[in-house]
Amino acid sequence: MRVNFTVNGRPQEADDVWEGESLLYVLRERLGLPGAKNACEQGECGSCTVRLDGVPVCSCLVAAGQVEGREVVTVEGLAEYARQRDAGCRSGSCGTSLDEAQRWAAHGTDSQTGEGTQLSPVQQAFIDAGAVQCGFCTPGLLVAADEMLERNPTPTDEDIREALSGNLCRCTGYETIMNAVRLAAARQSEAV
Amino acid sequence: MAGTNAPLGTPTKVTQGSQTKGGIGESTLRPDGTLKVTGEFAYSSDMWHEDMLWGQILRAPVAHAEIVSIDTSEALAQAGVYAVMTYDDLPTDVRHYGLEFPDTPVLAHGRVRHHGEPVAIVAADHPETARRAAAKIKVEYRELPVITDELTATAPNAPLIHEDRTDHYAGHVEHPNILHRQPIIRGDVEEARHRADFIVTGEYTFGMQDQAFLGPESGLAVPAEDGGVDLYIATQWLHADLRQIAPVLGLPEEKVRMTLSGVGGAFGGREDLSMQIHACLLALRTGKPVKIVYNRFESFFGHVHRHPAKLFYEHGATKDGKLTHLKARIVLDGGAYASTSAAVVGNAASLGAGPYVIDNVDIEALALYTNNPPCGAMRGFGAVQACFAYEAQMDKLADKVGMDRVEFRRLNAMEQGTIMPTGQPVDSPAPVAELLRRVKAMPLPPERQWESSEGADVRQLPGGLSNTTHGEGVVRGVGYAVGIKNVGFSEGFDDYSTARVRMEVVGGEPVVTVHTAMAEVGQGGVTVHAQIARTELGVTQVTIQPADTQVGSAGSTSASRQTYVTGGAVKNACELVRERVLEIGRRKFGTYHPAWATAELLLEGGKVVTDAGEVLADLADVLEDEAVEVEEEWRHRPTEPFDRHTGQGFGHVQYSFAAHRAVVEVDTELGLVKVIELACAQDVGKALNPLSVVGQIQGGTTQGLGMAVMEEILVDPKTAKVRNPSFTDYLIPTILDTPTMPVDVLELADAHAPYGLRGAGEAPTLSSTPAVLAAIRKATGLELNRTPVRPEHLTGT
Lengths: 192, 797
Fold this sequence. Notes:
The complex is a heterodimer of chains A (192) and B (797).
Chain A: E1 3-7, E2 10-14, H1 23-30, E3 49-52, E4 55-58, E5 71-73, H2 78-86, H3 98-107, H4 121-128, H5 138-151, H6 157-163, H7 175-191
Parallel strand pairs in A: 1-5
Antiparallel strand pairs in A: 1-2, 3-4, 3-5
Chain B: E1 14-16, H1 33-38, E2 53-59, E3 65-71, H2 73-76, E4 81-85, E5 96-97, E6 104-105, E7 111-112, E8 118-124, H3 127-135, E9 138-143, H4 150-153, E10 178-186, H5 189-195, E11 198-206, E12 218-223, E13 229-233, H6 238-249, E14 256-260, H7 276-286, E15 290-293, H8 296-302, E16 305-306, E17 309-317, E18 323-333, H9 341-350, E19 360-368, E20 375-376, H10 383-401, H11 405-412, H12 432-441, E21 451-452, E22 455-456, E23 474-487, E24 496-506, E25 509-515, H13 525-537, E26 541-544, H14 562-589, H15 595-598, E27 601-604, E28 607-610, E29 615-618, H16 619-623, E30 628-635, E31 654-667, E32 672-683, H17 690-709, E33 743-746, H18 763-780, E34 786-787, H19 791-795
Parallel strand pairs in B: 2-15, 11-34, 13-14, 16-20, 18-19, 25-26, 32-33
Antiparallel strand pairs in B: 1-26, 2-8, 3-7, 3-9, 4-8, 5-6, 10-19, 11-17, 12-13, 12-15, 17-18, 21-22, 23-31, 24-25, 24-30, 27-28, 28-29, 31-32
């Protein structure tokens, strides 16, 4: 079957999709977006978390056909999603200004290291706080944490734990992840 | 070699730009951090190649059976299937592999020895097609009786797991189903027992733990025009994989070119091969790139686990609290294949007394061959099981003597100069008593934290949002534990690493490139290598090349050894580069300034400077167009094997110590445990990157917490089949299960080690589990001789 949907603001078309394929498989293997991860493929670990029409979901549990006509945001689009949110827009509805486009072009990125990449506050905080080790859980945690901070800009520790309880991490023991989310929240509130 | 044929996701070199100035001792940030937070970092499961096929493994549904027949015809006839292979299709006479000795069949031959053993492999154009084709392979099994424990393994007529053993342990074990046995005997236990005023004994059970790294086993094999294969893989040790893979394929090692792809955690579970040979076989058979990715279910069958163990301990003490003796027997279940079981036995035996002064010791440790899942390396490697038992014993004995549990440990704590039960002196700082003092001195979390003006916050109570209590029946307990772990490979192993370091001038700036085969599995080795290069060579820009087999072996990313050994190799290669650069400088400029001949010279800020800080030359002027490159192996001091009968010998390179204090709250009515805080104090010699060190300590601590209250692979004792191979049924700690973990890091240098550092990754996994158990015992008054603890153990239901 053919599936048409929007990923990170861009219309996408996936062809020859087998009916049993998950959204995760289509993103990773058909659209070249491997950021969402495949750690359990049964909705237990949260490493494949993406936003489907704004709602965080385990993309391994979403059948590809279910996303027809809907909007998906993955970790690859998180920085832009957060930037547009900060600019007062939702889901790319207000476009990119000429000024912003020029700034982006002038900045450039290093394809080898990602240096110069625009990051969302929560992405930057994960790096700064040491919340990334092997990094396999990171994309899912970032999407979940970003969504929580959108809903709840001043979370308590218990709020953070509750919001991220569906995302397993095996390396960090979560302490640096807590620090990262606290840091992102603090920076966000300073910026306001 | 990848060249234009390189698949998508091929690792590229990582350059950390000049904004980072950090040398050792600074918490510089990961060079792969940006890639990892943007989803751009290519893990082994992210690899993609045009025309690639998907591999699938068919695994045994039973634990022990004769294979009567295999019929692949129906599978082969499926549309989209390119190849089906069984044992009979293997290309050479080398059809077994193994880390220490080759007892593991690449594909089962006539018999399967454990649940999930690979029997056949399939390549197809879609993963679902491959799965369905594998299901169409008809295998007829005739089931055999299963061996699941010591009793069944050594019974008079027990079937042998491996007949006609020829490995080097076979000659000195009492039964062929015993893989290896190591005694450690020192002093006179019988005599000491008479002097003991108090004796405590215990029988302890340690469950089977899984590494549960999040990135499943995966990789991509690309056949090459020269008849070889390029393998992109997640592993802990590229060269050990290569040594096992190439002979099975019938290829010389130089035709199996391995590149490390992104590794989603390891914790010991990637020491053994998983899908490496299978992917290469299918790629060479079909002439197409083949990708294999396990799902979580298969991952539970696709790697070895931590050995479950039975431990029998007897300790004695005088009435003033001094330990008199230890008699211990540690029985590890190695499962169906050897993996690293023998080395795990060596660790369990030699570290079985813990970090204490005990002059009279009689320990034996052994590993069984059974039909249970194969067990091998996991963080802590044999020392974990022993620590659970000896720390339970310490509490019991302290209570009997009538001493405070921490003070009793401190009284008997080893220190620098203590002689291990192996006769090896501990010849660097061993601050066991100090670690205990520090962890005990940390402030305790306030009682009844769940209470607020709006009533109980159930999220802070056992049971959490299940809303099972508002504080009724909840009891607090505090427990302590300390452990000892060896660092590096032991028992005479030639434990070296290799580093290639290059310095050249690019765009007027000196630039350093570091190339090793070290597997970065998340620990932050790449961060530390760049820090070492900056410190040694005084540059800001350091490029870390992807790890591959185009450079010499780095050894394994395990045994807490990589910062020590590959870090040591990088440091050594940098020093040699520095010497060569200074020689060039002396040749060019030596006559202009006497300091070139007389002063101690350093490289700092891109310049040659004297130790007094005088600038002699710019590196750009010294090197001009010349590049200086050194590739060199580096070894730590040698160790020696343990004597087969007495266990005496200089077996370990270095020891590592951590202590924990656990605070738990237990809902005694429902048997639910909430760990409130897990504090750790650890000596790391020198923290090359403090942020990474704390990350290792907290991560290791959490895996120990999982082992205390959650994690166990359940194997049916009647069938030897795994009952819970999923994250639904095998639970690892979530962010709700994991408490605050304050960490106190000591830095007491080990003069034998580079920068004085002490391997840090494993020690925290040891003492975490027994500290939590001690706290639960304190809260409930129960004896609790097994781990993990489940609610039924606390409620008696």
